[in-house]
Amino acid sequence: MKILNNVRLYRPFASESTEAIFHIVMDGEKIQSINNGLTKETGSHVVDCDRRVVSAGFNDSHMHLLRYGLMKKELDFRDVTSYKEMKRLISNRFNEEKMEEHDWVVGRGLIDSQLTDIDHSLTADDLEELEYDKPAFFLHEDGHECVVNYEALKILQQEPALLKNHETFIETDRNGNWTGRFKDTAVHFIKFNFRQKNEDEIYEAVQDAVPHLLEKGITSVHTDDLNFVGNYNRLFKTYLDLEKDGHLKIDVRLHHYIFNIDDLNYFLRTTNKRTGEGSERVKVGAIKIFLDGTQRLHTSALRQAYHDKPSTSGNLIYPQDELDEIVQTAHENGMQVAMHAIGDRTVEQALNALEKVDTKKLRHRIIHAQVLAPDLLERLQEVKPYIETQPGFIMNEYDQTANWVGKDQEKFCNPWNTVDKMEIPFTLSSDTPIGPLSPITGIFVAVNRTDTDGNPTGGWLPDEKLSVDRSFQGYSQSAAELEFREHEKGRLTAGHQADLIMLSEHPNEVKTSELNSIEVIETWSRGQRVFQKD
Hints:
The protein is α/β, with parallel strands linked by helices and 534 residues long.
């Protein structure tokens, strides 16, 4: 038994005073009781918390944990502002002699538009200047676009499967030749087939990543890692090994990313576990599928032409009947479905499929749903899939959204307060490493609708700001609902799993413009302290 003594509580929508003092009794992995005042007990099991604020731990319902852990072994281009600097970074930090045979040169965070010494997006022709005889793969900051060199193209052009469902996302020149640039599902295909990691690499990367999550107060995650592994059972086994060895201090739901119905049927044949099944910490998550691309690339599917590119309205990856079959098959076999759908045309397609099954039974999800409309909101209200939002995205997109969808449509983009008022279930999440890892930052953005510098003044579409309480719920209780564990997880109450965080300040006592200054002082997972700030 452990007792957190002399604490204040932050429980969204609770009526207790922010100054009231409590003590929390934890018995094993559960909260046994939360009591008024100080405990009369003494001993090493009593921890004096010096009036710190305790809240429920964060649950990130949409991230890429393995990819986050692998980043330390990849070149980081996020702050690179010239191609000359990029080449110098590769030369200085990449040691070809230490690479294993058949490995690739890998970089991430590429932002072509900020390279001041070139006037175009990098292609395989440009990468010839690197003079490496190994394949090179450089991923854009948002994870939806990449450029490869000719050594990589030689390999990729031998893959006929790359042309199935992905041909739209392979860039060609005016003569029809591949330029070395790929988008959306073509990028995922490349990672899935050529960037696979073995069990030791998976183990090390996840082990390295977990402390970063605990530092941010994250005690549970839902993660899509399959791109870098290829085999779901091997991925699941490696996470079980981490749990057995005591290196997994968080709860994990592992999604299975599929390209088509054949992938789904193979999973159902070869895996005997379904959504929610597994060990104490490691459980099967959802079937993950991409239905469109991104607004930046004009590949998310809109119901009208892009305002700044009238020649296109984006791309639907699957015909409706194929998506219907995937959703129906997953649903009938006890698998939750999570669909990446950014554009309004794609959200409509997702709803068409979800209306044919009992969506509320398995709590199927739509990821992002960034572009909506009144009719879609009404259908979402009726069907009630969970919407997985990523507030951190708007920090880099708020000033571009009207260019993409037009002023009339802009007011229906990321309409979080409207979604909340209509009682459409939703979560807040990071999409790390694409978005910022910190839930506190995500909450700050959801509440203020600005970037961390306070831009734009007053917030972008300020009527769509969320309350502090609702934002914290979106990062805790709502994610537990996706796990069907809302009666035992995600809240600070007796009988719930003892996933707790200790905060430097009470969220309801801080100006909303200063929410991002709140620090996580301690993190407790299943009744054990797993992080303590120095």
